[in-house]
Structures are given as structure tokens and as C-alpha cells.
Write a structure and sequence with these properties.
The complex is a heterodimer of chains A (372) and B (293). Helix content of chain A is 46%, strand content 20%. Chain A is an alpha/beta fold and 372 residues long. In chain A, strands 7-6-8-9-10-14-15 form a 7-stranded mixed β-sheet, sandwiched between helices. A 5-stranded parallel β-sheet of chain A has the order 2-1-3-4-5, with helices on both faces. A 3-stranded antiparallel β-sheet of chain A has the order 11-12-13, covered by helices on one side. The longest helix of chain A has 22 residues, at 2-23. Chain A is globular and about 65 Å long. The N and C termini of chain A lie far apart (68 Å). Chain B has one domain. Chain B is built from 11 helices and 4 strands. In chain B, α1 crosses α9. Classes of the chains: A alpha/beta (372), B mainly alpha (293). The A-B interface holds A 36, 38, 40-41, 44, 167, 194-207, 209-210, 213, 226-227, 229-230, 233-234, 237-239, 256-260, 293 and B 2, 5-6, 9, 13, 16, 50, 54, 107, 110, 115-122, 128, 130, 134, 137, 139, 141, 208, 211-219, 221-223, 253-254, 257-258, 262-263, 265-266.
Chain lengths: 372, 293
């Protein structure tokens, strides 16, 4: 009897959950990212950012969004599995994947099946290459490296630059390569290049000593904030105080629990995500209220991705009963023509799927960002 | 001067590997199993200490005691639940279980403490030593780490050679069956071994995160693997071997990175391990046991 009651309740609950969505039809937006495992921090942020956008859109009325998130554990094979789960669900467009290697694997399948994908954060050029249905919200890695090198050169921030990058990570290596290519045209000299191979790497004394011995007055860190926080701590321990210059992966360092923000004083970073902006601040407040932490760039990119997909689908007259292939053909035509205002800037796309938006350099002063 | 600085960093990193390796080697010596979950106990210890100081308002020293206590209990529970039922199973089954426990701990940590990395606040705040007009700077954490490692080594050597429980451990490691016949409580001895190993893991975790502050659910896995390598390098089952292996590994890693290539740091470490094992299969200080047929 108990089982029967439980079953009835479960069915009733399931119906309650699906009914409102079915009432006036809903776009089916899928999400793929690492929700468990070592890269979970990025995937969970991105999923939560997307959920805020879905909630906002659904509260406004109009065409609703049905949102389903699948875990890929930052593993290409699992990611393709997650993609097929979404396909069985009847997904129309995908906000994903969060990380580059899984994204490239899923994009290869989605290209065959004609499913439109917009990744919040998979920034490797290998993700979009040769695939017309794959778009990015974030900068491509080499582009970000070039921008950073140009900025350092034009502002005359340094004459001798050292680079510490993660050679096991496509993101970090991509930015590094772009930076080095552009550095040749700039008035500074790259005096030391040191790498590491794991974000949880315990020791950066060697890399920092190399930079110090080479007399670098600026250390470029094309890495995530996690290893960067170790670098800042260990640099302070050895009393080495160059100008540190980070990229968008550095965003999040100030809200890391336990981090002494005075260590990041004067650190500069390149990020399109500026909390001083009013619209961004409203998103950050909602995120804070829902999840108890400040959003990272991953959350903001994913929030933008949902809005960009939704706006494009509405503009193209997509209806909830269209197949993913029909939606894909419309969006592939529309995306290169659209201009989208999001929390991470005003975006336009070219037909390769790469985004154009204005990069912003901020400096950390007294524990908050000051736009340069 | 950078040579000296690298040497000190290497010894300090190596001391952390050594403390972790002691846990591996003790458990291997006595229970004849590779406890791959050991690296994750390190992570748990560091998390407990982090929460004790940041959220529960305990002093750093007290947080170490709490972390050691929690890890000791955790070690005993893991042994009782996961390994004891497999005492007579094949070593492969135990090995796979250990890997399972490792993933279980990582994912439990992800559930309990979340995926956002924490920045561990160093529990050692004594100030740096600056020598040669600031050319050589030795951090307080490095000194405390090396001292801890020496104290632990001396204490463990005394414990295993002088106390009754220590003798029981050596007896069990030599011959489990014979020890049992002589009235040694084998299960209790193995539990104590796990308890000591896990308490050491807590200390290692706290020292590791004091020098490199990033704390996340996977923090313990790479140092765990390196320390396992150190234990094999020094001769698994041998306490001085674990210590020697750990420190050598740390120094080789730092020197390899600074004088050969930062790309190849880990490759050099593991290449040397392979060479040592080819020349001396039992490790540097490992005993050669002749199998009787």
C-alpha cells in the first residue's frame, strides 16, 4: 500500500513539474558540464549561472525554458554520453560544454546531427574549428593572449616579462602561445618561461625563482585563480613582488574562501566580467541570494549564453515543437548577424563562431576591481 | 644562492612527501596492502583544520589536534568497513577497494565542502628568516615542516622498537599467522597502524596546505601518488626508507624542475624511480626477502 501511495505521489509530482512547462510550450535548452570531479567548480558555477537566467526568463512569462543539466566529469566520453541523454530528452539547443576537450568531442557529434551549441567557456579554437553550429561566449585563448600582450606593451607596464603557465591545460597553453606570438611585436622582452602541469600543484618556488633570477618586473599568469593563489602566497613568502598580470581565469580569486585579499593587491587581470556594471551587479545579487557565493566568470558566461540562445530563438521565430535540426539551421543564419548585450559585454559573432567583445583590464585595489 | 634556496625548498617539499610516505609504508609493512585512500585522508585533515580555524574559532595548534583526531577515527572506520572484510581476499581486490575508497572520500568532500577551492591559511605564522641581505629567504613553514618530519621519524622509530604495541606491529609484519599464535591481537594491531598512519596524514595535509594553500577535494591525490612513489623508492615497508625516499624525491623534483626543465619535473622523478627499481627492485633501503618454496 505504501509503495502504491508513494508511486501515485511520485506521478503526481512529476505531472506538477512538467505541466506548467507544457502549458504554453517551452524551449528545451540542455547544459553539459563537469558537475563532479576535479573540474566541478567550473561546471557547477556555469550551471548555476544558467539556472538564474532560466528562472528570470520563466518569471517574465512568454515562451518558457525547460532546462536540463547533465554531468560530464570533464571527460570527453562522458560528455558525449551526456549529449545523447539530452538528445533523448528532445533538446533543441545546447548551452555547453563548459570545458574545451569535452566540448570538442560533443561538437563533433552535434555537427553531424545539426544541433546548435553555444559554449559559455570552452575557449580553445579546436572547439569551433570547422563547425558552423558551434559558437563561443568567451574569447578564444590565443586572442586573449594577444590582447594581454598588446595591453602590456602599449601601456609600457614592463620591460622584462616572465610567464608561468599550465602546460597540461589547453586553455593556459593557448593563451601562452597567443601571448608569445604577439610579444615579438611589443617593446618588452620575455625573459623567463616556466610551466607546471597540474592545477593542484603544490610548489611554485622553482618557477618563481626563475622569474626572479631573470629580473622580470612583470609576471604573466595565463592560468586559473586556484594555482594563482598559490603563486601569490609563495611569491610573498620569498619577498618577490613583481607586477602580476592575469587573464579571465584569475577572476574569482577575491572570493576564494580563506584567501588573504591583500596578497592580490595591485594584481591586474583581463576580464570582460565587471561587477561595477549595473546589470552585472543585479545578476551578482541574485546569484548571491540563491547560492551564497559571488558568481565567477563561468557563471556570468553561462548566464549570457542562456539569454543569447533565448533571444536568438525568439528572434528567429523558433517554436517549442521544432526539432533541433530545424532550430540549428535558423540560428546558424541568425547568429553572425546579431548583437547581444550581456553581463560580460556587448557581443558579436563571426561565422567561425568566435566572439568579438571589448576586453577590460582591471586592477585589484583594496580587495576590489578598479577598471583601468 | 638559488641553489641553496632550491635545496631548502626541495627538503621541505620532500619532508611532506616523507610524512605521507610513512603512512603508506607502515600500512603496507603491516597489513600488506596499498592504501590508496591515504592521499585523500590528507585532504580531509586539511579541510578539518581549515574549518576549525576559520569557522569554529579554534587556535591553529588546537585545529591540528582536532584534525588528527578526526583522521584517526576516519582511518579506523575505513579499515573496519572497507578493508577488514577483505583480509583474506586477493591483494587485487583490496587494491581496487582502496581506489574505491579514495574516490568515495573525494566525492564526499565535494558534497560536504563544495567544489569551490578554499585558500588554506597557514597555521605557522612565525615570520621568515632572511639571510645574506635578503638573497636567501627561508619560510617559517619550511622549517616547521622539516622539524615535524624529524620528530615524527624519531617518535615512530622509538614506538616500533621500544613499546609493546610496536613490537606487536613488527611481529605482524613479519608473519601474521605466527604472531596470532603467539597471542598478538592482529586486528587490533592493524587498526592501530591505520590510526597512526591517518593521524600522520592529517599532519601532512596541514603542512602541505600551509606551504601551498589551495585546498580542494583533489588536493591529496597527486601528493599521495608522489609519496607512494617515495615509499617504493626508499623501499616499501621500511620506515627510514620512506623518510629517505620522500626527501630525495622532493629534492630531485625541485632540482629537476629548476636545472633541467619545468615541463619535465615529474617525468624526471618517475624516470629515476624506474631506474632505481631496475637496479634495486626492493628500493633503496628495502629488505630482500627470499621466498621459500
Amino acid at each position: 500500500m505504501k509503495k502504491f501511495v508513494a508511486l501515485v505521489l511520485a506521478i503526481a509530482m512529476a505531472m506538477c513539474m512538467t505541466l506548467p512547462a507544457m502549458a504554453d510550450g517551452a524551449f528545451k535548452i540542455g547544459f553539459i558540464g563537469p558537475l563532479t570531479g576535479g573540474a566541478a567548480v567550473y561546471g557547477i558555477s556555469a550551471k548555476q549561472g544558467a539556472e538564474i537566467a532560466v528562472q528570470e526568463i520563466n518569471e517574465k512569462g512568454g515562451i518558457q525554458i525547460a532546462f536540463q543539466a547533465e554531468d560530464d566529469m570533464h571527460d570527453p566520453l562522458s560528455s558525449v554520453g551526456a549529449y545523447y541523454t539530452l538528445m533523448d530528452w528532445g533538446v533543441q539547443v545546447i548551452n555547453g560544454c563548459v570545458t574545451s576537450a569535452p566540448c570538442a568531442a560533443v561538437a563533433a557529434e552535434a555537427y553531424e546531427h545539426r544541433v546548435f551549441m553555444l559554449t559559455p567557456s570552452a575557449s580553445s579554437p579546436s572547439v569551433t574549428e570547422g563547425r558552423d553550429m558551434m559558437y563561443q561566449i568567451c574569447f578564444t585563448d590565443p586572442e586573449q593572449g594577444k590582447t594581454a600582450a598588446k595591453y602590456i606593451g602599449e601601456k609600457g607596464l614592463a620591460t622584462k616579462v616572465a610567464i608561468i603557465y599550465n602546460n597540461a591545460d589547453a586553455y593556459s597553453t593557448g593563451i601562452y602561445q597567443g601571448f608569445v606570438a604577439e610579444a615579438e611585436n611589443q617593446p618588452f622582452e620575455v625573459v623567463a618561461t616556466a610551466s607546471f602541469s597540474d592545477d593542484a600543484n603544490p610548489d611554485f618556488s622553482v618557477q618563481l625563482n626563475a622569474a626572479k633570477d631573470a629580473g622580470a618586473d612583470l609576471v604573466f599568469l595565463p592560468i586559473y585563480y586556484t594555482p594563482a593563489s598559490t603563486i601569490l602566497t609563495q611569491a610573498k613568502n620569498m619577498e618577490y613582488q613583481p607586477q602580476f598580470f592575469g587573464v579571465d581565469g584569475m577572476d574569482g580569486i577575491l572570493t576564494m574562501e580563506g584567501f588573504d585579499v591583500s596578497l592580490a593587491e595591485n594584481v591586474m587581470l583581463l576580464t570582460p566580467f565587471d561587477l561595477n556594471d549595473a546589470e552585472t551587479a543585479s545578476f551578482a545579487d541574485k546569484y548571491m541570494a540563491a547560492y551564497g557565493t559571488m558568481p565567477t566568470q563561468f557563471a556570468a558566461d553561462s548566464y549570457d549564453a542562456v539569454y543569447a540562445l533565448y533571444d536568438a530563438m525568439v528572434a528567429c521565430g523558433v517554436t517549442p515543437d521544432m526539432s533541433s535540426a530545424e532550430v540549428c539551421e535558423l540560428l546558424v543564419q541568425y547568429f553572425p548577424t546579431m548583437t547581444f548585450e550581456g553581463t560580460t559585454g556587448t557581443m558579436q559573432w563571426d561565422a567561425t563562431g568566435a566572439v568579438t567583445k571589448v576586453p577590460l583590464v582591471v586592477k585589484i585595489v583594496d580587495g576590489s576591481y578598479v577598471t583601468q | 644562492m638559488s641553489f641553496l634556496s632550491n635545496l631548502i625548498n626541495g627538503i621541505s617539499l620532500g619532508s611532506i612527501y616523507a610524512i605521507i610516505a610513512l603512512g603508506y609504508t607502515m600500512v603496507y609493512g603491516i597489513a600488506k596492502m596499498l592504501n590508496f585512500a591515504h592521499g585523500d585522508v590528507i585532504m580531509v585533515g586539511a579541510y578539518i583544520s581549515f574549518y576549525a580555524t576559520q569557522h569554529w574559532g579554534l587556535t591553529p595548534l588546537l585545529s591540528v589536534v582536532v584534525a588528527m583526531a578526526v583522521c584517526t577515527v576516519l582511518g579506523i572506520v575505513i579499515e573496519k568497513l572497507a578493508y577488514k572484510p577483505l583480509r583474506s581476499a586477493t591483494s587485487l581486490a583490496v587494491l581496487i577497494t582502496a581506489i574505491g575508497v579514495s574516490y568515495l572520500l573525494q566525492n564526499l568532500a565535494l558534497l560536504i565542502w563544495g567544489s569551490n577551492p578554499k585558500n588554506f591559511v597557514s597555521i605557522v605564522q612565525l615570520g621568515k628568516i632572511s639571510l645574506f641581505n635578503g638573497e636567501l629567504i627561508i619560510s617559517d613553514v619550511a622549517i616547521v615542516t622539516v622539524l615535524c618530519c624529524i620528530v615524527i621519524m624519531v617518535a615512530l622509530t622509538w614506538f616500533t622498537s621500544k613499546t609493546k604495541m610496536g613490537r606487536a606491529m613488527r611481529a605482524v609484519s613479519e608473519d601474521k599467522g605466527a604472531a596470532q599464535l603467539m597471542g598478538v591481537n592482529v586486528n587490533q594491531t592493524i587498526s592501530v597502524t591505520f590510526a597512526i598512519g591517518s593521524a600522520l596524514a592529517a599532519v601532512a595535509g596541514i603542512l602541505l596546505c600551509s606551504s601551498s594553500p589551495v585546498l580542494m577535494p583533489t588536493t591529496g591525490s597527486m601528493p599521495g601518488i608522489k609519496a607512494f612513489t617515495a615509499a617504493v623508492f626508499g623501499g616499501i615497508g621500511s620506515l627510514p626508507g620512506a623518510m629517505l625516499g620522500g626527501i630525495l624525491l622532493g629534492v630531485i623534483e625541485i632540482f629537476g624542475k629548476s636545472y633541467i626543465s619545468t615541463d619535465l619535473g615529474d617525468a624526471i622523478v618517475f624516470a629515476i624511480l624506474i631506474i632505481i627499481l631496475l637496479v634495486k627492485p626492493t628500493g633503496l633501503l628495502g629488505k630482500k626477502v627470499n621466498e621459500k618454496v
